[in-house]
Give the backbone structure.
Amino acid sequence: MPELPEVETIRRSLASKIRGRKIKKVLILKPKMFRGDPKNIIETKVIDLQRRAKILFIKLSNNKYLMIHLKLNGQLIWLSEAKKTVPSGKTTHIIIFFDKGRLFFNDLRQFGWIKIISDFKKETAKIGVEPFSREFTVKYLSEVFCQSKRAVKLVLMDQEKIAGLGNIYSSEALWEAKISPLRPSNSLESKEVKKLREAILKVLKEGIEYKGASAADQAYIQPLGEKGSYQEHLRVYQQDGEKCARCGGIIKRVKLGGRGTFYCPKCQGG
DNA sequence: CTGCGGTCCTGAAGGC
DNA sequence: TGCCTTCAGGACCGCA
């Protein structure tokens, strides 16, 4: 599932392709996945691409934005005019035609969406602190954790608290910090909070460095079709039954908040 | 506040 | 072989 590193990778890759380009046509094959009137963005130019949490924003010359959430299986595929092959027709639901090139929005499960928005601040008001921002301090994290007795992994994945962490990177960060995903977040000592903050930054940086994780059941690929390689560096996510790289314990899978949760009971604890 | 279950959707996997 | 059921999950919603 595209989380912060995957969306950031897409943003960087796509920015170099569509910045300055003009939108000529929007083909909507699945109306429920597109909100807003596409007429309002025809003939506008792409000013810039931004990311908040797991959401991509394409800023347009008429001060509107295309807000894109890829959810579990969304893909944004760029095809320059030169190539004529159309990718994965069956899962393509929206195509944006530019003055040069086309952007395909594919989504196997059709959970993702694109909408036209005007008020960036309003749309992002509820999104929590970005891990790479100055506000992501030990103090902020401690306050967030103190306020809840929910399992720490659920708090990490709460987009209103911390932006961009999903199932993969929250699991990996907790392994890195040697903290069980099941621990009530308000039970973490300040030393652990500090370690967890560093672990979050570490795994996210690595995720971006390896251009995202294209794990076994993931549909994630980059806009030019390449896979990421962070899946080769996963320590716990989807590694149940394997030996822990750190202590040799057996990685366990449990269900938490309805989601698969992976950890090493030996070195991360209960 | 918290947890639970349902919702969207498809393909893979398991049962018989 | 083939049909049927179950499951996975990000975000949101309603309910207890």
Notes: DSSP finds seven helices and eleven strands in chain A. The two ends of chain A are 26 Å apart (CA to CA). Chain A has a mean pLDDT of 94.
